[in-house]
Fold this sequence. Notes:
By secondary structure, the chain is of the alpha+beta class. The protein contains 11 helices and 11 strands. A 6-stranded mixed beta sheet has the order 4-11-10-9-7-8. A 3-stranded antiparallel beta sheet has the order 3-6-5, with no helix packed on it. Helix 5 packs across helix 10 (282-297). Residues 1-6, 12-23 and 30-38 have low confidence and may be disordered.
Amino acid sequence: xxxxxxxxxxxxxxxxxxxxxxxxxxxxxxxxxxxxxxxxxxxxxxxxxxxxxxxxxxxxxxxxxxxxxxxxxxxxxxxxxxxxxxxxxxxxxxxxxxxxxxxxxxxxxxxxxxxxxxxxxxxxxxxxxxxxxxxxxxxxxxxxxxxxxxxxxxxxxxxxxxxxxxxxxxxxxxxxxxxxxxxxxxxxxxxxxxxxxxxxxxxxxxxxxxxxxxxxxxxxxxxxxxxxxxxxxxxxxxxxxxxxxxxxxxxxxxxxxxxxxxxxxxxxxxxxxxxxxxxxxxxxxxxxxxxxxxxxxxxxxxxxxxxx
Length: 308
């Protein structure tokens, strides 16, 4: 007697949800789960962020202003570092560490990104995401020569990390970056640059396409310095004044910060910011920078207070 075929009604299909019958099976459908990871990522889920809840007009902005440099806003701050300089010198004498003003800028900026999380958003695939974690990228010359390469460091900053722990860890990170050791990013670049141009160009385009849909491999973007909360350049360490820097269209970094040289007479420093206004409006950014000013100019008021 031939087996009776089971008819799946529309209602039963609805109740089955993501379960589907196995091809070639005539009986009742086996409840085989269909993985939906890819579709979820294409419609708002990413490894490095979650879809932000924003007002309709802000959701529309990435469609109207398609690139970061089309959306860039510039800020400038002049900070008085008299208190901060004294605090760092006293602290270094007490601890034996060699903290610098750049350490303080990085630490304060990371804290501001936790306190004002809308600045830690990014644009991908014309959508706005809240970043998972706070990451800062900076570059350092391996040697003071014109032909010396730049060493780029991308580092995650934990919310509860102490200033002392950050200084110790960052000192190690910089020492490794300036050594002759080949970084993971340099190895990846070396591999891709071996490809001929007619293959490399579409490969980069494919990575951009995958990234816009949340499908880029974590192995490629996890350590990529352009996938970061902010890129910070310490131009003052080279004796250069702060300058406005463009934003990179590659990656998802919405903020570029340059720190100038410290005036030996006035103990002032100029910091300049290039900021993708699609992630949040200028007023929000300005109030965040006001908080950053307070914390850099008077570190004792919050770093020592938190420790005690």
